[in-house]
Amino acid sequence: MKSAAAELPVPLQPLELIEGMVTPGSLDDQVLQFPDRRPPRAWYFALAVTLTALGIGGFCMAYTLYYGIGAWGNNRPVAWGFGIINFVFWVGIGHAGTLISAILFLFRARWRNAIARFAEAMTIFAVMCAGIFPVLHTGRPWFAYWLFPYPNERGIWVNFRSPLVWDVFAVSTYFSVSLVFWYLGLVPDFASMRDRTAEGIRKRIYTVLSLGWRGAASHWVHYDKAYLLLAGLATGLVISVHSVVSFDFAVSLVPGWHMTIFPPYFVAGAIFAGFAMVVIVLTVVRKTMNLSNLITDNHLDTMNKLILAMSCIMGYAYFMEGGTAWYSANPYIQHTFKNYVSGFYGWAGITTVTCNIIIPQLFWFRRMRRSIPAMIFVALAVTLGMWMERFVIIVISLHQDYLPSSWHLYIPTKIDFGILLGSFGLFFTLVLLFARVMPVIATSEMKASLPGAQAGHGGGHE
Amino acid sequence: MSSTTTTATFAVLGLYSDAQKIVDAAKQIRPRKLGRLEAYTPYPVHGLDKAVGLPPSPLGKLVLGMGLLGTILALLLEWWTSAVDYPLVVGGKALFSWQAFVPVMFEVTVLFATFTAGLAMLFAFNKLPFFGHPVLHSKAIKGITRDKLALSIESTGATFDPEVARQALIENGAESVEIVPIPAWDRPLSLVGLLRTIAAIAAACLVAGAGLFAAEKMIPVVPPMLHMHNQPKLNAFRSSTFFADGRGMRPAVAGTVARGHLPPAFATPEEAGTMLANPLPLTQKTAERGRKVFNDHCAVCHGTVGDGVALLSHAYGAKPGNLLSNEMRARPDGYIYGVLMLGKNAMPSYAPDLDEADRWAAVHYVRVLQRSQNAKDEDLR
Amino acid sequence: MTTEAPRSSLVRNALVALTILGAAGTALVYVCEGPARFWANWLVWTLFLLTVGLGNLFLVALERLVGAHWSVPMRRVPERIASLIPLAIPLLIIAFFGVPVLFPWTHAEVAHNPILVAKAPWLNLPFFAIRLAACALVWLLFYSFYVRGSLRQDQSKDAAFTVKARKLAPLFMVVFFFSVTIVAFDWISGLEPEWYSDMFGVYLFAGTFLSGIAGMALGVLGLIRRGRLPDVKPKHFYNLGTLGLAFTVFYAYIGFAQYMLIWYANLPEEVVWFKHRIEGAWYPVAMLLPLFHFLLPFFLLIGAVGKKNPKILRIAMVSILFAHFVDLYWLVFPVLGAQPLFGWPELAMACLFLGLGLLQIRRAMGRGADMPVGDPLLAKGLEWQL
Description:
The complex is a heterotrimer of chains A (462), B (381) and C (386). Chain A is mainly α and 462 residues long. Chain A contains 16 helices and no strands.
């Protein structure tokens, strides 16, 4: 049966997903050692940097609360600035995690096993970062709970016809579902940690968190079913969440916003940006935590192929947007699209296209896909490009729409930049803490796909 | 291994390292009906659930049903709030704009389905969290969550023979066997303990709820949230350091005319008397309106019957006019209107207080009063 | 290779008779009902055959792109159904002669419409013809490469073809997306040239992909029923059900998003296209779409049972194909008027095109082995486990 694979020419052979010899026991020892060890000095240094960024952001958020949204650069007509740009950016980053853990699970792509846990964690952290912005930008965030429909003494309800309310439901559902999905995956791993740790407070914590999991076959039956169902639900959710975010723009009449392709265009962009972030984080993690035998060059190669595919989809979307803008013969849309690449903010549109479409084309070349410096360069470019894309969509469309007397430039303030920096600080702080405290690879999932793990035919390949 | 037949046995565990071996062993042992068959593994082994005799999970149907329930509940919520309880036309769309309701319906469907999947799987089907299971306190558990696959033959009662089970496992390739006793305490989860836990959670919820409620009431009135109320902006009803007169409110520019209050065309009441006639017909309604206007604005000085004797007469030095006098009765309607509009002596102009209809209604009522105080016999018939 | 049994030649003769009857009826339609109705039918059926063929070719290339193994034993079926492409291309070229009849932007009064004048650099017959020729060329090139190459590989057993097929797959994807978008804009949305929706290419892609899966599934199940695919088990076509479910949801998502966005903003130039298709007599036709393109296949395919059971899978796939046809009818026919036309002309032309299509597929089913026996990945595909 394995002989079939041996006859295949090299390009057709299945990817090796594990380097060297890995057994369930060695996997546990390699991955689960970190919560018991002191982290290296570099970790503390990195944490100091991210906490500084977080602190700056925290100060700027407090400043905003104290002085109001006037501290931001928002004006009329550009009433949505960095607040919404950052919100869409971070929600988008979260989508890659769900794609890797849920969608690739449905496709039974075994290469996802080594990276799914980290990616899911990044989803949750990214959604937490994203949530800051809509809450802050309301101006009176202490009333944020008014966004939920509950019977109240004012006698009114939220406006269910508004995409901003759809956002409330979508993002809160996305956060809860991601949390449930992530936690369920962690339960067997917490059980492993419970049984590895000596008696003490840590063991108690793991005992509670593992819910008394004992790996019973009768439990795995229901667990596997739940995991499959959750993967299917999360897939639908990830597509719907960023589509609902795109509806914020597409249901309006602002030229350049009301384009029907927005929902799948935003979803593709989100996956694109998210994958770039996953690549950035994983290249660092696998080096510093010595996990290169589990997160192999083949994993990174495959992710980079997906980044390339998403870049092509984004290229199609940009082409359709521009082409339909011309085809529409609508002078307002055409004016906006001209502004995307020329005029005061033209540099933003050029940067977007360069970073999102042109630079990722490097990944057609296998050497680029497998070179760490190249992939970090491309991933950083994509991250910048995708942030810039939201800037282009929001600021350029708003600053010059129908009525010339309303035209006005948008200049972000230091507070805007500070909060953006703070969101990165929060994200990477959480990532560092996660790597320190929790199993970064889903050991139980990995064990199931190791060679010899299953009866009959082995795993270890795609 | 010493005989453990004196202590009640929960199960006999056989440990394996190879997935194929444990599946084969399960297939061999199951027909012998030595006890309830179970397996404990660090990851799900394909085929082991069937070999042990486990049915597929019914979770899927439950999740689908709950998801659809979520769809319907969301739709009902959106319909009721938007079309029934507080109908509000938004964007010119119908009250029941189902197209706009779909996104929330979808999200709530996924929410219900997900929580059903997660919580039903843990609580209902797997009965977790549960920390008292005997296997958790066995020696084998360390291996089970690491790399060992355990096949368990569990006691079903008096007929269970741990020795036979042990033999069967060794025959079928078990690397080692452990006999797991039933733990010393008989019920790890006692009713009292459960009630205490529930009570503690309920108390915590109450405290948290009360705290949140208090916070919700307090936060808006505490700085910096209070800054929304006391914004450094011009307020019409507050003092201001910005304007020279220290007022936030700006007075109207000299010569400003409010709508419906153009300056009258006459200079004296006599002139008004010659120029104007009462445009309102005298009806019951007009008279009653006039009565209201008179009682509200005029009676305080001129008295309720218009004779100039009123509550405040002694308080003021000025003497209000007697509207019932012969002189007054001889004046034309326009004269009364003119006095009302321009004021006379100590009486100010009532033009800003009354609109046209009120003014003429008051004039009618004065006439009514004059007639009522000088009634003739035929008026009573 | 199966020999022609008496039953199958009966089927062949019936199909030929159907085609000839349809051809006669079609000629009558042109004469009696006028060119507009004739060309509308021609266009709908051509698009149907084209999209089913393209959808199947897409599935072939998609398998190469992602390196899937589970579909290899079944791959000969979509390669054969893709033979609808060389049938549809001449039909499409003939349909070009109907463009001046159906498409308003070819009419003289365009000169007075500033919007259409602005669109004239794209909406003119010469450029239209160039786009048509370019699409036809690339479709034929890729069809020839993938399908003929696979048939040749049956004999040569040369693994190099599989490697090359995998390498070319990304290029095919790019070409496929742009060509389907061109078909959508040129042949469908151009019927109401003032309307625009940049999602429309994706919308047609969703329907194309779905009809590809439906065709492939029906073909596979049909061959299994005739005992010609003994090694293909439920575990193999289970994934066809999964893909069918996923893309049913995807289609509903795209269709709903396009509709809801246009409904919400309520811009006259966009809404009028939907008004023509969901008001009055068109409403019942429009309602067929959510029912047969989404609800029925969704609930049939959502359980694990539906994906493994050939009967349920077949019903779901037939529903999808039927709905895809209704979709194309619903997209094109409103150009003829506020009443959905359905009568003997539609039935006659259905006979012609169904006959041609089924004959073409039947011919293809006789070519080559029933499984891609030369493909080095076949063994892995057969032993693949869910």
